[in-house]
């Protein structure tokens, strides 16, 4: 092996080892919030077939890929941190509390946008001239197209399920601490439908 190859291997090792060290509940939940809000915002700016194509390519169809990257980072963070650090980071995180509240808000926004997109697609078809079609607009207006996103908003996604499972299982966090966190979050940021 030459020196350049060894340097590249060393650099890759350092990146893998340190990737979980910079994460915390704020950064991970903020990333999830950004992904969710970008998804909804892409629907909001969809007004025709061209903007629907853009939303599909950049946000809707890439949703699973973006989420998997953050899920991977979450797994590394949980694995690399002491359980007390993870617990305190989550229970002290405003961003995580906002994430829980935003899931409900974004679920409502999703329903409103899908209703609007359905009307936009119907109007486009009704006013089409010369056999023009709107495949992207019709695709983005389908409720089934967004089922993975809807399910994540309903449950809080892997962020909530992984942390909830760890807190009640391996971490043995007292239920009263979790209930206090949820109650304080509701006071500060509004009600949520997610069970944490």
What does this structure look like?
The structure is a single chain. The protein is mainly alpha-helical and 196 residues long. It has one domain (24-189). 77% of the residues lie in helices and 0% in strands. It is built from 10 helices and no strands. It has helices at 3-18, 25-44, 49-60, 63-80, 83-91, 94-126, 135-140, 147-155, 157-168, 175-189. The protein is elongated. 30% of the residues are buried.
The percent range for helix content is over 70%
Order of helical and strand elements:
HHHHHHHHHH
Tally of helical segments? 10
For the termini, the CA-CA separation is 50 Å
Apparent shape: elongated
Could you give a short account of the major beta sheet?
A: none
Number of strands: 0
Count of individual domains: 1
Which strand-content bin applies to the residues?
under 5%
pLDDT averaged over residues: 87
Name the poorly predicted regions: 11-20
Estimated radius of gyration: 21 Å
**Class based on secondary structure composition and strand pairing:** mainly alpha
Write the layout of secondary structure elements.
Layout: H1 3-18, H2 25-44, H3 49-60, H4 63-80, H5 83-91, H6 94-126, H7 135-140, H8 147-155, H9 157-168, H10 175-189
Helix pairs in contact: 2-3, 2-4, 2-6, 6-8, 6-10, 8-9
